[in-house]
Automatic annotation (TrEMBL):
This is Carbohydrate-binding module family 13 protein. Gene3D superfamilies: 2.80.10.50. It comes from the Eukaryota. Residues 40-131 form the Ricin B lectin domain. It comes from Suillus plorans. CDD domains: beta-trefoil_Ricin_MPL_CNL.
């Protein structure tokens, strides 16, 4: 069982580089590693599908999901993780690396893990991609639960 919960919002911090998964504001498509600025483009809603025990991961800041560039059957090392317009299936597993706590996000039914490229390079803008599952902390993501309210809710608190 994973340490995340259905319909909760998380920021995903890479256990190697320390940056978080960020839906790029430059193109609203690319996923990059970036410093945590608590933005909605770094907040992700996890939805569990009980039928096949998969997860979809939706951006709080856009009506888009964590997905991949291209067809699932053509995925391989270096395939870009990008924003897509439909719920995309991921397998979520607890970390399998001793001393590294977090989750591994795997392409459903495949051996590819979501990876902060260049072995977890902490430079802002480092691409998020798929890579064959291995025992690298750059493939483990620490979910940090976020409390998020709508603009309407924020305004009502300010009154």
């Amino acid at each position: 069982m994973t340490c995340i919960q259905n319909q909760r919002i998380y920021t995903l911090r890479n256990c190697q580089g320390g940056t978080v998964i960020d839906l790029s504001g430059g193109d609203n498509y690319s996923m990059i590693g970036y410093r945590d600025h608590n933005g909605p483009n770094q907040a992700w809603i996890f939805h569990h599908n009980d039928d096949d025990d998969t997860w979809s991961i939706k951006s709080v800041g856009a009506d888009k999901y964590l997905g991949i560039d291209g067809d699932v059957n053509d995925a391989g090392n270096g395939t870009r993780v990008v924003a897509v317009s439909f719920p995309f299936k991921w397998d979520i597993k607890n970390s399998d690396i001793q001393g590294v706590e977090g989750i591994r996000i795997l392409l459903h039914g495949h051996k590819f893990s979501v990876d902060l490229s260049d072995n977890g390079n902490a430079t802002e803008g480092t691409p998020i991609q798929l890579w064959t599952r291995w025992h690298g902390a750059n493939q483990i993501w620490a979910p940090v639960e976020r409390k998020w309210c709508s603009v309407k809710e924020q305004n009502s608190y300010a009154l």
